[in-house]
Amino acid sequence: MTITQKFLGAAATLALTTAIAHAEPAVIFDLGGKFDKSFNEAAFEGAKRWATETGGTYKELEMQSEAQREQALRRLAETGANPIVMTGFAFGDVLNQVAPDYPDTKFSIIDGFVEQPNVRTILFAEHEGSYLVGMMAAMASKTGTVGFIGGMDIPLIRRFGCGYAQGVMAAKADAKVIANMTGTTPAAWNDPVKGGELAKSQKSQGADVIYAAAGGTGIGVLQAAADEGILSIGVDSNQNYMHPGKVLTSMLKRVDNAVYDAFTAGEALETGIINMNLASGGVGYAMDDNNKDLVTPEMQAAVDEASAKIASGELVVHDYMSDNTCPALSF
Amino acid sequence: MDFLTLLQILDSTLRLATPLLLACLAGMFSERAGIFDIGLEGKMLAAAFVSGAVAAVTVNVWLGLLAGIGASLLLAGIHGLASITFRGNQLISGVAINSLAAGLTVLIGQNWFGLGGRTPSLVGDGRFPPLTLPFSEALAPVPVIGPIYHDLISGHTFLVYGAMALVPASWWLLSRTRFGLRLRAVGENPAAVDTAGVSVVRMRFAAVAICGVLCGLAGAYLATGLSAGFVKDMTAGRGFIALAALIFAKWRPVQAMGACLLFGLLEAIANRYQNIDLGGVIIPVQFMQALPYILTVVILAGFVGKAVPPRAGGEPYVKER
Fold this sequence. Notes:
The complex is a heterodimer. By secondary structure, chain A is α/β, with parallel strands linked by helices. Chain A has helices spanning 3-21, 39-54, 69-78, 92-98, 126-140, 155-171, 192-204, 217-228, 255-265, 297-312, 320-323; strands at residues 26-29, 59-62, 84-87, 107-110, 119-124, 145-152, 176-183, 209-213, 231-236, 247-253, 272-276, 283-285. Chain A folds into two domains: 3-125 and 257-276, Rossmann fold (3-Layer(aba) Sandwich), CATH 3.40.50.2300; 127-251 and 283-323, Response regulator (Rossmann fold, 3-Layer(aba) Sandwich), CATH 3.40.50.2300. In chain A, the strands form two sheets. In chain A, strands 2-1-3-4-5-11 form a six-stranded parallel β-sheet, sandwiched between helices. Chain A has a six-stranded mixed β-sheet with strand order 7-6-8-9-10-12, sandwiched between helices. The longest helix of chain A is centred in the first third of the chain and has 19 residues, at 3-21. Residues 14-21 of chain A have low confidence and may be disordered. By secondary structure, chain B is an all-alpha fold. Chain B has one domain. Chain B is globular, with a radius of gyration of 20 Å. Chain B starts with a helix and ends in an 18-residue tail after the last helix. The model of chain B has no long low-confidence stretch (mean pLDDT 88).
């Protein structure tokens, strides 16, 4: 062995030990992309907040295709990143296979369900948040018809739609909900043209408030709704600012908090299942200067009341994913 | 289904068919001249991005349109260079253009705007406004004709009418002019054209350039007409649907319009009805969404008869010595 090789070997070992000593957290964004103005961007906001507050650095990866998931996870785990947070249900199967191979690394999956000793599963009660915005939609609607546009047709998105429809019915029992899904492939998260067409189609069927739970496709829905002079409801992040005065509210899913908490806990991340619901502030609705004129005191009062009831457990919103049926809406 | 619903579906059909039609005509010019082009998708995407970006910065949709056509022409030039001048494989060049456009648009978009490859939302003059045709308000109360004229024909953007007008224009250009005859001949038997003293290379480049301009229009329509700004991968496979429509139409312009309108109609129906209830039998939405693809296979397998591509298609022309 030559001197050079020895030095290289020593340097490599040193690099490896440093990496383990200062494990950086990592976040993986799903196919919608880091700047989807919605779900993934909320995760990015959480990571950014952690970085500014602690001065720490983190690794990040953006998925470009389905095939990269396993490779990305293993690569991050092997570079010593800990904990690794990933957004999106689609990581579930992959993580189930990868997690046992890296017992010392902590993983956290948002929206997916993985039972492994080193995995924290974070589930959001989207149906509860959607219920609240559904009530607001029904009360803001003049025609008595409201719309829902989902992204990819998966049980998670149906849970949004189902909660929303229940909220609509609770506020106005004879209201009609028109529901559309954009598609059945991940491309459905990024098709604003189709989102816009769906919104126009729903408007022509009488809908005057449309809730978009569709990632990047939702941008097209919000745009078309603003063009057509009807109201829309954003999702995941606060999207009220995108068309001030034309977005009724946004269903907030505090993905940012989930990522921030995981990063703060670091390697000591507690594993298990965490439910982020209305009671724990995991979901909610957005109020700011852009929509304050749209939300009447009556709406506010009704939503606050329902919110308190759901938090206390007095009112139970049916969860589509519990039995794959929805009492208020047929998909 | 009442009359008004029908009109709304047809209205949506027109909007959705327009980008397909423009891309389909683009592919037709290229393929009739013997240059296969599976890079329609990439050219549309690049044009959508550049037109969205320029329209967002200048707040002038016409500048955006020109810039979009420019971007598409540039990619068409690369395709021409690779497949005509350097006699490379046309399919590989097309795939390369698709990948290039998908990657570059997001990369440049992120660098310029920092919105993850999205362009800022277009406002005011940054978008094509709907045009209201003359007398549409006056005619609106007239039964049947009024609503058809007011709701269906009037109120689209400039590019929708442009695309429709391009169909007879393309037909005329291809089958009634000397240029068109030569263009078609270059795709069937380039040696004969060469013998007649016409430059095969120049004819093919002209065809590829026309293809670039039309793809540019299609992309610009997506970003500035149908939606307000560019979002990554916003073409969502429309370039490939256009190719299917082209084969379906057997590389002829009027039939291309029919095919594109059919695909647009299917998409509009799928958008409108989540589940279609046909007297007890419920057709799920997944089936409706898959229908354009299923239909392509079925139609190509049996109904259109044999779709024969231009004979010299896909082969680079090598001058005999």
